[in-house]
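[Discussion] Sanity-checking designs against the backbone

I'm trying to build intuition for which residues belong where. Below is a C-alpha coordinate string of 388 positions. I'd appreciate it if someone posts a full sequence so I can compare it with mine line by line.
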Protein backbone atom coordinates (compact mmCIF):
# COMPACT_ATOMS: atom_id res chain seq x y z
CA UNK A 1 0.00 0.00 0.00
CA UNK A 2 1.36 3.44 -0.90
CA UNK A 3 2.14 5.98 1.80
CA UNK A 4 -0.97 8.10 2.41
CA UNK A 5 -0.96 11.83 1.83
CA UNK A 6 -0.26 13.78 5.06
CA UNK A 7 -3.57 15.58 4.59
CA UNK A 8 -5.58 12.45 5.35
CA UNK A 9 -3.97 11.48 8.64
CA UNK A 10 -3.42 13.35 11.86
CA UNK A 11 -4.74 14.36 15.26
CA UNK A 12 -7.09 17.06 16.54
CA UNK A 13 -8.02 17.95 20.14
CA UNK A 14 -11.44 19.54 20.58
CA UNK A 15 -12.36 20.39 24.15
CA UNK A 16 -12.50 19.08 27.71
CA UNK A 17 -15.03 16.35 26.83
CA UNK A 18 -13.81 15.22 23.42
CA UNK A 19 -10.14 14.71 24.17
CA UNK A 20 -9.00 13.77 20.69
CA UNK A 21 -9.91 12.80 17.15
CA UNK A 22 -7.36 10.55 15.45
CA UNK A 23 -7.65 9.92 11.74
CA UNK A 24 -5.79 8.02 9.06
CA UNK A 25 -5.63 4.55 7.49
CA UNK A 26 -4.57 1.99 10.10
CA UNK A 27 -4.77 4.56 12.90
CA UNK A 28 -6.79 2.34 15.27
CA UNK A 29 -3.64 0.35 16.11
CA UNK A 30 -1.84 3.37 17.53
CA UNK A 31 -4.71 5.72 18.40
CA UNK A 32 -6.68 3.31 20.59
CA UNK A 33 -3.77 2.68 23.01
CA UNK A 34 -3.08 6.43 23.16
CA UNK A 35 -6.68 7.14 24.05
CA UNK A 36 -6.80 4.40 26.69
CA UNK A 37 -3.75 5.93 28.34
CA UNK A 38 -5.00 9.51 27.96
CA UNK A 39 -8.32 8.59 29.59
CA UNK A 40 -6.73 6.48 32.34
CA UNK A 41 -9.06 3.54 31.71
CA UNK A 42 -8.33 -0.16 32.22
CA UNK A 43 -11.30 -2.30 31.09
CA UNK A 44 -12.99 -1.85 27.70
CA UNK A 45 -16.46 -3.00 26.65
CA UNK A 46 -17.13 -3.11 22.89
CA UNK A 47 -20.59 -2.16 21.56
CA UNK A 48 -21.36 -3.17 17.97
CA UNK A 49 -23.87 -4.92 15.69
CA UNK A 50 -24.27 -8.58 14.76
CA UNK A 51 -23.32 -8.24 11.09
CA UNK A 52 -20.11 -6.36 11.78
CA UNK A 53 -19.18 -8.83 14.51
CA UNK A 54 -20.11 -12.07 12.76
CA UNK A 55 -19.45 -11.35 9.07
CA UNK A 56 -16.35 -9.16 9.07
CA UNK A 57 -12.98 -8.98 10.81
CA UNK A 58 -13.45 -5.35 11.86
CA UNK A 59 -14.51 -6.01 15.46
CA UNK A 60 -11.86 -8.70 15.83
CA UNK A 61 -9.18 -6.18 14.85
CA UNK A 62 -10.36 -3.79 17.58
CA UNK A 63 -10.54 -6.63 20.09
CA UNK A 64 -6.96 -7.61 19.19
CA UNK A 65 -5.67 -4.10 19.93
CA UNK A 66 -7.43 -4.11 23.30
CA UNK A 67 -6.15 -7.59 24.14
CA UNK A 68 -2.59 -6.56 23.33
CA UNK A 69 -2.92 -3.89 26.01
CA UNK A 70 -4.80 -6.13 28.47
CA UNK A 71 -7.91 -3.96 28.47
CA UNK A 72 -10.48 -6.15 26.68
CA UNK A 73 -13.47 -7.46 28.65
CA UNK A 74 -16.57 -8.15 26.52
CA UNK A 75 -18.12 -7.54 23.10
CA UNK A 76 -21.85 -6.82 23.04
CA UNK A 77 -23.13 -7.25 19.47
CA UNK A 78 -26.91 -6.97 19.78
CA UNK A 79 -27.53 -3.33 18.90
CA UNK A 80 -30.04 -3.22 16.05
CA UNK A 81 -30.81 -0.51 13.53
CA UNK A 82 -32.15 2.70 15.11
CA UNK A 83 -30.89 1.45 18.54
CA UNK A 84 -34.04 -0.27 19.92
CA UNK A 85 -34.42 0.10 23.68
CA UNK A 86 -34.52 -3.70 24.18
CA UNK A 87 -30.96 -4.04 22.90
CA UNK A 88 -29.81 -1.16 25.06
CA UNK A 89 -31.30 -2.79 28.16
CA UNK A 90 -29.55 -6.08 27.35
CA UNK A 91 -26.31 -4.24 26.72
CA UNK A 92 -26.61 -2.40 30.00
CA UNK A 93 -26.85 -5.71 31.87
CA UNK A 94 -23.77 -7.03 30.07
CA UNK A 95 -21.91 -3.79 30.76
CA UNK A 96 -22.59 -4.01 34.49
CA UNK A 97 -21.39 -7.62 34.55
CA UNK A 98 -18.17 -6.71 32.71
CA UNK A 99 -17.02 -4.11 35.21
CA UNK A 100 -15.72 -2.00 32.31
CA UNK A 101 -14.75 1.65 32.74
CA UNK A 102 -14.78 2.58 29.04
CA UNK A 103 -17.05 1.71 26.10
CA UNK A 104 -15.68 1.35 22.56
CA UNK A 105 -18.43 1.59 19.95
CA UNK A 106 -17.63 0.10 16.55
CA UNK A 107 -19.89 0.57 13.53
CA UNK A 108 -22.57 3.05 12.53
CA UNK A 109 -24.90 5.40 14.35
CA UNK A 110 -26.81 2.67 16.19
CA UNK A 111 -23.83 1.24 18.15
CA UNK A 112 -22.57 4.77 18.84
CA UNK A 113 -25.96 5.95 20.12
CA UNK A 114 -26.43 2.63 21.92
CA UNK A 115 -23.18 3.14 23.82
CA UNK A 116 -24.22 6.67 24.79
CA UNK A 117 -27.60 5.42 26.02
CA UNK A 118 -25.99 2.64 28.11
CA UNK A 119 -23.67 5.18 29.72
CA UNK A 120 -26.62 7.45 30.46
CA UNK A 121 -28.78 4.76 32.06
CA UNK A 122 -25.90 3.30 34.07
CA UNK A 123 -25.15 6.69 35.59
CA UNK A 124 -28.83 7.20 36.44
CA UNK A 125 -28.91 3.81 38.18
CA UNK A 126 -25.67 4.24 40.13
CA UNK A 127 -25.45 8.02 40.50
CA UNK A 128 -21.76 7.51 39.81
CA UNK A 129 -19.50 9.08 37.18
CA UNK A 130 -20.29 8.83 33.49
CA UNK A 131 -18.17 6.16 31.82
CA UNK A 132 -15.85 7.21 29.00
CA UNK A 133 -16.65 6.38 25.38
CA UNK A 134 -14.38 5.92 22.36
CA UNK A 135 -16.19 5.87 18.99
CA UNK A 136 -14.78 3.97 15.99
CA UNK A 137 -17.21 4.62 13.11
CA UNK A 138 -17.31 2.49 9.95
CA UNK A 139 -19.89 4.58 8.04
CA UNK A 140 -20.23 8.25 7.08
CA UNK A 141 -23.29 9.31 9.09
CA UNK A 142 -21.12 11.19 11.65
CA UNK A 143 -23.17 10.02 14.66
CA UNK A 144 -19.99 10.36 16.71
CA UNK A 145 -20.15 14.13 16.15
CA UNK A 146 -23.93 14.52 15.83
CA UNK A 147 -25.06 16.82 18.66
CA UNK A 148 -22.60 14.58 20.42
CA UNK A 149 -24.25 14.69 23.86
CA UNK A 150 -27.54 13.31 22.49
CA UNK A 151 -28.22 9.59 22.07
CA UNK A 152 -31.03 8.68 19.68
CA UNK A 153 -32.90 5.44 20.32
CA UNK A 154 -36.20 3.74 19.53
CA UNK A 155 -38.74 3.04 22.27
CA UNK A 156 -41.07 0.03 22.59
CA UNK A 157 -43.67 1.75 20.37
CA UNK A 158 -41.20 2.15 17.50
CA UNK A 159 -40.94 5.89 18.11
CA UNK A 160 -37.66 7.80 17.82
CA UNK A 161 -36.67 9.28 21.16
CA UNK A 162 -33.45 10.04 22.98
CA UNK A 163 -31.53 11.01 26.09
CA UNK A 164 -29.09 13.85 26.50
CA UNK A 165 -26.49 15.38 28.76
CA UNK A 166 -23.12 16.97 27.88
CA UNK A 167 -21.27 14.07 29.50
CA UNK A 168 -22.43 11.73 26.70
CA UNK A 169 -20.05 13.23 24.13
CA UNK A 170 -17.41 10.65 23.17
CA UNK A 171 -14.05 11.20 24.83
CA UNK A 172 -12.24 9.97 21.74
CA UNK A 173 -12.96 9.31 18.08
CA UNK A 174 -10.93 7.24 15.62
CA UNK A 175 -11.51 7.62 11.88
CA UNK A 176 -9.67 4.68 10.31
CA UNK A 177 -10.57 4.17 6.66
CA UNK A 178 -9.15 0.65 6.60
CA UNK A 179 -11.92 -0.43 8.95
CA UNK A 180 -14.55 0.78 6.47
CA UNK A 181 -13.54 -1.58 3.64
CA UNK A 182 -16.03 -4.21 4.82
CA UNK A 183 -18.94 -1.75 4.94
CA UNK A 184 -21.55 -2.70 2.30
CA UNK A 185 -21.55 -0.32 -0.66
CA UNK A 186 -25.14 0.90 -0.26
CA UNK A 187 -24.62 1.60 3.44
CA UNK A 188 -21.32 3.39 2.81
CA UNK A 189 -22.66 5.59 0.01
CA UNK A 190 -26.06 6.30 1.56
CA UNK A 191 -24.47 7.43 4.82
CA UNK A 192 -22.33 9.68 2.63
CA UNK A 193 -25.59 11.31 1.50
CA UNK A 194 -26.49 11.54 5.19
CA UNK A 195 -23.27 13.50 5.69
CA UNK A 196 -24.24 15.69 2.75
CA UNK A 197 -27.60 16.23 4.48
CA UNK A 198 -25.74 17.43 7.61
CA UNK A 199 -23.58 19.81 5.61
CA UNK A 200 -26.39 21.27 3.49
CA UNK A 201 -28.83 21.72 6.37
CA UNK A 202 -26.11 23.31 8.53
CA UNK A 203 -26.01 26.10 5.94
CA UNK A 204 -29.41 27.25 7.20
CA UNK A 205 -29.30 25.86 10.74
CA UNK A 206 -30.32 28.44 13.35
CA UNK A 207 -27.33 29.62 15.36
CA UNK A 208 -24.61 28.04 13.22
CA UNK A 209 -21.72 30.54 12.92
CA UNK A 210 -20.08 31.42 9.61
CA UNK A 211 -16.90 29.33 10.21
CA UNK A 212 -19.08 26.22 10.55
CA UNK A 213 -20.82 27.06 7.28
CA UNK A 214 -17.45 27.41 5.54
CA UNK A 215 -16.50 23.93 6.79
CA UNK A 216 -19.82 22.62 5.50
CA UNK A 217 -19.25 24.12 2.06
CA UNK A 218 -15.87 22.34 1.96
CA UNK A 219 -17.58 19.14 3.08
CA UNK A 220 -20.16 19.44 0.29
CA UNK A 221 -17.36 19.85 -2.26
CA UNK A 222 -15.55 16.75 -0.97
CA UNK A 223 -18.68 14.61 -0.83
CA UNK A 224 -19.67 15.49 -4.39
CA UNK A 225 -16.13 14.68 -5.56
CA UNK A 226 -15.26 11.57 -3.57
CA UNK A 227 -18.55 9.65 -3.27
CA UNK A 228 -18.61 8.85 -7.02
CA UNK A 229 -14.88 8.05 -6.86
CA UNK A 230 -15.50 5.65 -3.98
CA UNK A 231 -18.29 3.92 -5.90
CA UNK A 232 -15.98 3.53 -8.91
CA UNK A 233 -13.02 2.32 -6.81
CA UNK A 234 -14.39 0.95 -3.51
CA UNK A 235 -11.03 -0.35 -2.27
CA UNK A 236 -9.32 3.04 -2.54
CA UNK A 237 -8.48 3.73 1.10
CA UNK A 238 -7.31 7.30 0.50
CA UNK A 239 -10.65 8.24 -1.06
CA UNK A 240 -12.48 6.59 1.84
CA UNK A 241 -10.36 8.50 4.34
CA UNK A 242 -11.13 11.78 2.59
CA UNK A 243 -14.81 10.91 2.86
CA UNK A 244 -14.48 10.29 6.59
CA UNK A 245 -12.89 13.72 6.96
CA UNK A 246 -15.69 15.24 4.86
CA UNK A 247 -18.27 13.60 7.13
CA UNK A 248 -16.47 15.10 10.14
CA UNK A 249 -16.57 18.56 8.52
CA UNK A 250 -20.28 18.10 7.79
CA UNK A 251 -21.14 18.02 11.49
CA UNK A 252 -18.33 19.75 13.34
CA UNK A 253 -18.88 19.57 17.11
CA UNK A 254 -20.87 22.66 17.99
CA UNK A 255 -22.36 23.81 21.28
CA UNK A 256 -25.34 26.12 20.91
CA UNK A 257 -27.09 28.01 23.70
CA UNK A 258 -30.22 26.02 22.93
CA UNK A 259 -30.68 22.84 20.93
CA UNK A 260 -31.38 23.52 17.28
CA UNK A 261 -32.34 20.71 14.90
CA UNK A 262 -30.47 20.75 11.61
CA UNK A 263 -33.49 21.22 9.38
CA UNK A 264 -36.58 19.81 7.72
CA UNK A 265 -34.81 16.95 5.94
CA UNK A 266 -33.53 15.63 9.26
CA UNK A 267 -36.88 15.99 11.01
CA UNK A 268 -38.56 14.10 8.17
CA UNK A 269 -35.84 11.46 8.44
CA UNK A 270 -36.61 10.92 12.11
CA UNK A 271 -40.31 10.49 11.29
CA UNK A 272 -39.63 8.01 8.49
CA UNK A 273 -36.72 6.09 9.99
CA UNK A 274 -37.62 4.09 13.07
CA UNK A 275 -41.37 3.77 12.46
CA UNK A 276 -41.10 2.55 8.87
CA UNK A 277 -37.71 0.87 9.00
CA UNK A 278 -35.96 3.26 6.62
CA UNK A 279 -32.18 3.44 7.23
CA UNK A 280 -30.87 6.88 8.19
CA UNK A 281 -28.77 7.23 5.07
CA UNK A 282 -31.68 6.33 2.82
CA UNK A 283 -33.98 8.87 4.52
CA UNK A 284 -31.55 11.55 3.34
CA UNK A 285 -31.55 10.08 -0.18
CA UNK A 286 -35.33 10.41 -0.09
CA UNK A 287 -35.78 13.87 1.36
CA UNK A 288 -32.75 16.15 0.94
CA UNK A 289 -33.14 17.23 -2.69
CA UNK A 290 -36.83 18.04 -2.24
CA UNK A 291 -36.23 19.93 0.99
CA UNK A 292 -33.52 22.03 -0.67
CA UNK A 293 -35.92 22.85 -3.52
CA UNK A 294 -38.45 24.01 -0.92
CA UNK A 295 -35.85 26.41 0.51
CA UNK A 296 -36.03 28.43 -2.72
CA UNK A 297 -39.57 29.23 -1.63
CA UNK A 298 -39.41 29.49 2.16
CA UNK A 299 -35.83 30.24 3.28
CA UNK A 300 -34.56 33.65 4.30
CA UNK A 301 -32.55 35.69 1.79
CA UNK A 302 -29.39 35.08 3.82
CA UNK A 303 -29.92 31.30 3.90
CA UNK A 304 -30.62 31.23 0.16
CA UNK A 305 -27.36 33.07 -0.49
CA UNK A 306 -25.26 30.53 1.36
CA UNK A 307 -27.08 27.64 -0.33
CA UNK A 308 -26.39 29.27 -3.67
CA UNK A 309 -22.69 29.49 -2.70
CA UNK A 310 -22.58 25.70 -2.73
CA UNK A 311 -22.82 25.64 -6.53
CA UNK A 312 -19.39 27.26 -6.85
CA UNK A 313 -17.92 24.68 -4.49
CA UNK A 314 -19.22 21.77 -6.57
CA UNK A 315 -18.04 23.49 -9.78
CA UNK A 316 -21.49 24.07 -11.25
CA UNK A 317 -22.15 27.42 -13.01
CA UNK A 318 -24.64 29.84 -11.51
CA UNK A 319 -28.06 30.11 -13.10
CA UNK A 320 -27.95 33.88 -12.72
CA UNK A 321 -30.37 34.11 -9.79
CA UNK A 322 -30.21 33.06 -6.16
CA UNK A 323 -33.51 31.16 -6.26
CA UNK A 324 -32.42 29.48 -9.47
CA UNK A 325 -29.14 28.46 -7.87
CA UNK A 326 -30.93 26.91 -4.90
CA UNK A 327 -33.13 24.90 -7.26
CA UNK A 328 -30.04 23.91 -9.26
CA UNK A 329 -28.37 22.66 -6.07
CA UNK A 330 -31.46 20.53 -5.43
CA UNK A 331 -31.15 19.08 -8.95
CA UNK A 332 -27.44 18.33 -8.42
CA UNK A 333 -28.20 16.52 -5.16
CA UNK A 334 -30.88 14.42 -6.85
CA UNK A 335 -28.47 13.66 -9.69
CA UNK A 336 -25.76 12.55 -7.25
CA UNK A 337 -28.19 10.22 -5.46
CA UNK A 338 -29.13 8.68 -8.82
CA UNK A 339 -25.49 8.41 -9.93
CA UNK A 340 -24.68 6.50 -6.74
CA UNK A 341 -27.51 4.03 -7.40
CA UNK A 342 -29.47 5.20 -4.35
CA UNK A 343 -32.63 6.65 -5.90
CA UNK A 344 -35.73 5.34 -4.16
CA UNK A 345 -39.18 6.40 -2.98
CA UNK A 346 -41.61 5.99 -0.10
CA UNK A 347 -43.51 3.18 -1.83
CA UNK A 348 -40.36 1.04 -1.80
CA UNK A 349 -40.65 0.93 2.00
CA UNK A 350 -44.40 0.21 1.99
CA UNK A 351 -45.20 3.57 3.57
CA UNK A 352 -48.96 4.05 3.03
CA UNK A 353 -49.84 7.21 1.19
CA UNK A 354 -52.65 7.65 3.69
CA UNK A 355 -49.97 8.22 6.38
CA UNK A 356 -48.65 11.35 4.63
CA UNK A 357 -50.87 13.89 6.47
CA UNK A 358 -49.91 12.44 9.85
CA UNK A 359 -46.20 12.35 9.01
CA UNK A 360 -46.40 15.98 7.89
CA UNK A 361 -48.27 17.01 11.04
CA UNK A 362 -45.72 15.30 13.30
CA UNK A 363 -42.91 16.94 11.33
CA UNK A 364 -44.10 20.54 11.60
CA UNK A 365 -46.06 20.22 14.85
CA UNK A 366 -49.53 21.24 13.70
CA UNK A 367 -51.80 21.26 10.67
CA UNK A 368 -52.12 25.04 11.20
CA UNK A 369 -48.40 25.52 10.58
CA UNK A 370 -47.86 27.35 7.28
CA UNK A 371 -45.38 24.66 6.27
CA UNK A 372 -47.87 21.82 6.73
CA UNK A 373 -49.42 21.85 3.21
CA UNK A 374 -45.97 22.27 1.66
CA UNK A 375 -44.64 19.24 3.55
CA UNK A 376 -47.69 17.21 2.50
CA UNK A 377 -46.98 18.14 -1.10
CA UNK A 378 -43.28 17.31 -0.67
CA UNK A 379 -44.07 13.86 0.74
CA UNK A 380 -46.62 13.17 -2.00
CA UNK A 381 -43.84 13.86 -4.48
CA UNK A 382 -41.67 11.13 -2.94
CA UNK A 383 -43.71 8.30 -4.46
CA UNK A 384 -43.11 6.61 -7.77
CA UNK A 385 -39.34 6.82 -8.47
CA UNK A 386 -37.92 3.70 -6.83
CA UNK A 387 -34.73 2.17 -8.25
CA UNK A 388 -33.39 0.28 -5.23
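Best answer:
Here's mine. Compare freely.
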Amino acid sequence: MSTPSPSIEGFYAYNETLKAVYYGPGSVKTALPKLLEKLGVKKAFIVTGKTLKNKTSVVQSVEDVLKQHNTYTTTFADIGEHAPIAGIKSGLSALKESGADVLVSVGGGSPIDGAKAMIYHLQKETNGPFLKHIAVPTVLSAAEFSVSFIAGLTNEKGEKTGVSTPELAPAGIILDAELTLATPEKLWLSTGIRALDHAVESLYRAGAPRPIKVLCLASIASLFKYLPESKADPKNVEVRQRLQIAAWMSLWPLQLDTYSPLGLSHVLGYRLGAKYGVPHGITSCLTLASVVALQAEVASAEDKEVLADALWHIKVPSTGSVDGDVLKLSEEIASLVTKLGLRTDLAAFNIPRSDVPKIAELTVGSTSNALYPKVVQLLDGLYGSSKL
